[in-house]
UniProtKB/TrEMBL annotation:
<dbReference type="GO" id="GO:0016020">
    <property type="term" value="C:membrane"/>
</dbReference>
<feature type="transmembrane region" description="Helical">
    <location>
        <begin position="112"/>
        <end position="136"/>
    </location>
</feature>
<keyword id="KW-0812">Transmembrane</keyword>
<feature type="domain" description="G-protein coupled receptors family 1 profile">
    <location>
        <begin position="15"/>
        <end position="201"/>
    </location>
</feature>
<protein>
    <recommendedName>
        <fullName>G-protein coupled receptors family 1 profile domain-containing protein</fullName>
    </recommendedName>
</protein>
<keyword id="KW-0472">Membrane</keyword>
<feature type="transmembrane region" description="Helical">
    <location>
        <begin position="71"/>
        <end position="91"/>
    </location>
</feature>
<dbReference type="GO" id="GO:0004930">
    <property type="term" value="F:G protein-coupled receptor activity"/>
</dbReference>
<keyword id="KW-1133">Transmembrane helix</keyword>
<dbReference type="InterPro" id="IPR019424">
    <property type="entry name" value="7TM_GPCR_Srsx"/>
</dbReference>
<dbReference type="InterPro" id="IPR047130">
    <property type="entry name" value="7TM_GPCR_Srsx_nematod"/>
</dbReference>
<dbReference type="InterPro" id="IPR017452">
    <property type="entry name" value="GPCR_Rhodpsn_7TM"/>
</dbReference>
<dbReference type="Pfam" id="PF10320">
    <property type="entry name" value="7TM_GPCR_Srsx"/>
</dbReference>
<dbReference type="InterPro" id="IPR000276">
    <property type="entry name" value="GPCR_Rhodpsn"/>
</dbReference>
<feature type="transmembrane region" description="Helical">
    <location>
        <begin position="36"/>
        <end position="59"/>
    </location>
</feature>
<feature type="transmembrane region" description="Helical">
    <location>
        <begin position="6"/>
        <end position="24"/>
    </location>
</feature>
<feature type="transmembrane region" description="Helical">
    <location>
        <begin position="156"/>
        <end position="176"/>
    </location>
</feature>
Length: 201
């Protein structure tokens, strides 16, 4: 189990590094949506490195450690996990804006809104990560994994926040999907009218 998850984490490191490298090196990819994806890839990269680190420690018998120690080792990974969740939401909102109002999508005000959302994600991630510190203790943690680094109320809050974000993301993509279907239907209906007119000309 440890070896399989270690292998997947290493694949994640390589894959996310390639996404970041492609975005940085290719001007054609340096558009708003791609930059958001690259930002998410940065968070994913740190998470994958963090998971590799944990697997290596487990292979060396790193079990039953104090919760405080687990939290301090995991703090970078926890922050990146929170950024990961937040950026998933920002990407969903960005795609919804592109579908709902394509003419306004590339306006400066829209780009500023996107930057503000990313900034809010980093603030949210910092606060949620820091919140876990107030509940750390010296009680033993059998296996130091992301949920175990949080303790007591902070773990419940972390799980609730991630579940709420997941539900909101599903709703946003659902709305975007419905909007796309409506637009496609209107476009097909319009083309049918054009073809009908040409038929009688």
């Amino acid at each position: 189990m440890i070896y399989s998850t270690l292998s997947l984490s290493l694949i994640g490191v390589v894959g996310n590094a390639l996404i970041i490298a492609a975005t940085v090196s290719s001007p054609s990819l340096q558009k708003r949506c791609n930059i958001l994806i690259a930002t998410l890839a940065c968070a994913d990269l740190v998470v994958c490195i963090y998971l590799v680190q944990l697997r290596v420690l487990m292979l060396n018998g790193w079990y039953m450690i104090p919760n405080r120690h687990c939290y301090m080792v995991s703090i970078g990974g926890l922050f990146s996990l929170n950024v990961q969740a937040g950026m998933g939401l920002v990407l969903g909102i960005d795609r919804l804006l592109a579908v709902m109002s394509p003419t306004r999508y590339n306006r400066p005000r829209s780009k500023l809104l996107c930057c503000c959302m990313v900034f809010i994600v980093f603030i949210y991630s910092s606060l949620l990560t820091l919140y876990g510190y107030f509940y750390v203790s010296d009680s033993p943690t059998p296996v130091c994994l992301p949920p175990a680094a949080y303790r007591s109320t902070s773990r419940s809050v972390w799980v609730a926040c991630n579940m709420a974000i997941a539900v909101i993301v599903i709703l946003i993509y659902g709305i975007a999907h419905v909007k796309c279907r409506i637009l496609t239907s209107k476009r097909i209906h319009f083309m049918d009218h054009i073809l009908f007119l040409f038929h009688y000309l």
